[in-house]
Each structure stands twice: as C-alpha cells, then as structure tokens.
C-alpha cells in the first residue's frame, strides 16, 4: 500500500461512472490508459497521440530528426537549448546518474550502438579496444547542464540514450495530460511502466501485479498505485542488454529483474535501470527507495526487498 492516502481523491466519487480504456503504440512499444470519466474518448485519445508524437520528436534516439539526435550530432563545445520534455528528462537523468555513481547514465548511446542494441542493429561482440573507444566519448560527467536556461553542453562525440527513463516519463506525462483535462482518476502504462492517480469508481486503488521473470518461482506482489508509480527493468525479454556504463560491458550480476515504486514513473524507471546494474554493490540504498530485486540462483531465484518495500508490504 502507498504510505500516503489522499483524502481529496475520494471526494465526489460516482460508482456509476465508467472506466474508459484506450491503447496504442509508441517508442517501439505499447501504451494503455484506464481513466474514470465521461465516455467521450476520441478527444482524449487524439490528445495522447499528439503528446506521444511530441515526446518522440524530443526524446527518441531511433528518430534521426529528434532533438536528442540533433544534440548527439552537435559540434564539440556547443551549448544546446533543450525543449521542455527533453530538459525535464535530462535533469532527472543526471540526478540519478550522480546518486547511483554512474550505474545509470544517459550518455551511453555509443556503447548501446557498439553492442548492437541501438538503431544501427546487431553487431559482433566488440573487442577491448572498441569498448575503450566508446567509453572515452561517453560518461555523464562530461556533460555540463544549466537547468535554469535548459542548456546542455555537447563535449564532443557524446551520444545520449534515454531508453532507461523515457517510457517512465511518457507515463507521467500522459497522467499529467489527463489531470489537466479533469480526469484525475487514471492508470497509465507505457511499455510496462505504470503510474496510478486517484482511485477507481468504487474507491479502490489501481491494483497492479509487479512484473516477474517467467519461469522463476517468485511469490507475486500486488501494488496499490495511488499517487505512485512502478517500473521494472530486467534481461528476460531482450536478453542481457543491460550495459554497465562504468565498464562498457553487459552486466553479469545475475539480476533477473528489478521493480521500483516511486513518486513518478520517470524516477522509478531510472532507479530500476540503475539497480539492475549496481546490485548488490549499490551505494545508494540510503535513498529509501522501495524496490524488489530478483536474482538468479541455483535454486531458481532469490527475492531481495529493500527496507522501504518491506514496510509498504506490511501496511
């Protein structure tokens, strides 16, 4: 259960109101929205599609015309003014990079491409020299960020990749759009990252099961998404694609999946990515983040709960 229940969420509840379902595709994955409100979804769906198109134009490393790709092509020493959404994501991305000691790093586009997980497609396993070369042009500490002016400095050859945070931000952005239209009770999912606002018509929260790797005997955990979000990162869908930004190689720490509950899906997404890399030597436990980490073991799987997650399960 969430630690804070918003009494205002229960004001004016009408059990007779329908739950409207919408869905579509974005960022190479799918999105789905459930919201409580009048059954007039056409305008809402168009607004969501327009928002997602804007996010793709700003955040995508697969779209050569995106503002992110324009930054990646910018000359060394250039200060680039970022549009609103890209600036918001970069601000959080750099904060998480700092607190995770680089386990999460938005600047690993060159490494992602080198290992065949980016737009260029599959590639042979790189040798040490190629990895060293990609590491030399990567690294969040090479960036300079001016949040007041929304300006980011391209140090030269650095390639941003926001795939570990963009889907979470998209879920938050859709929930914000719905709220601005008076649709304050909603569950939003983008590529498996979820955010819940308000409650269902009967007053119950938006219940979701934390995603678990198939084939592992793990007890299910059901979370009440009421003003909180959940994101899951793992290697069970696309194989070992989680690259450790600190050494330029896929992580080999036996982590099957990490689920994080946080106040925003963007933060949960980034922290889940970081924990997938850093566990068990994570130096950011004191962030009081609710997380479930599932690791491979000879017996099948081992579940690890952070203290914050254990407290939520006891509420």
TrEMBL record:
Cofactor(s) it depends on: Mg(2+); Mn(2+)
Domain of life: Bacteria
Binding-site residues for Mg(2+), renumbered to this chain: 164, 269, 273
This enzyme's EC code(s): 2.7.1.180
Bound cofactor: record note: Magnesium. Can also use manganese.
Keyword Metal-binding set for record: yes
A Pfam short name: ApbE
Class in the EC hierarchy, top level: transferase
MF-aspect GO terms: metal ion binding; transferase activity
UniProt entry keywords in alphabetical sequence: FAD, Flavoprotein, Lipoprotein, Magnesium, Metal-binding, Transferase
Recorded catalytic activity of this chain's protein: L-threonyl-[protein] + FAD = FMN-L-threonyl-[protein] + AMP + H(+)
Family: Belongs to the ApbE family.
PANTHER family according to UniProt: FAD:PROTEIN FMN TRANSFERASE, THIAMINE BIOSYNTHESIS LIPOPROTEIN APBE
Descriptive protein name: FAD:protein FMN transferase
């Amino acid at each position: 259960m969430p630690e804070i229940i918003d009494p205002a969420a229960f004001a004016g509840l009408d059990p007779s109101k329908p739950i409207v379902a919408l869905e579509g595709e974005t960022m190479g994955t799918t999105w789905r929205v459930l919201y409580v409100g009048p059954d007039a979804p056409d305008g809402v769906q168009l607004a969501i599609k327009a928002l997602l198109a804007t996010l793709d134009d700003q955040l995508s490393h697969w779209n050569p015309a995106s503002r992110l790709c324009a930054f990646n092509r910018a000359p060394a020493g250039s200060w680039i003014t970022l549009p609103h959404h890209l600036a918001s994501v970069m601000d959080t991305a750099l904060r998480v990079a700092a607190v995770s000691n680089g386990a999460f790093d938005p600047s690993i586009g060159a490494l992602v491409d080198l290992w065949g997980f980016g737009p260029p497609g599959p590639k042979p396993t790189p040798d040490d020299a190629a990895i060293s070369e990609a590491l030399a042009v990567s690294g969040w500490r090479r960036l300079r960020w001016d949040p007041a002016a929304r300006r980011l400095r391209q140090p030269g050859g650095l390639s941003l990749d926001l795939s570990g945070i963009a889907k979470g931000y998209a879920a938050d952005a859709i929930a914000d759009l719905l709220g601005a239209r008076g649709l304050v009770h909603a569950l939003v999912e983008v590529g498996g990252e979820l955010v819940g606002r308000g409650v269902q018509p009967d007053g119950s929260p938006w219940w979701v099961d934390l995603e678990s790797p198939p084939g592992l005997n793990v007890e299910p955990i059901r979370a009440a998404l009421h003003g909180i979000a959940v994101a899951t990162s793992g290697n069970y869908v696309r194989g070992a694609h989680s690259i450790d930004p600190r050494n330029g190689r896929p992580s080999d720490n036996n982590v099957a999946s990490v689920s994080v509950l946080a106040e925003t899906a963007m933060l949960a997404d980034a922290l889940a990515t970081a924990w997938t890399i850093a566990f068990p030597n994570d130096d950011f436990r004191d962030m009081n983040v609710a997380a479930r980490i599932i690791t491979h073991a000879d017996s099948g799987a081992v579940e690890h709960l952070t203290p914050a997650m254990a407290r939520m399960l006891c509420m």
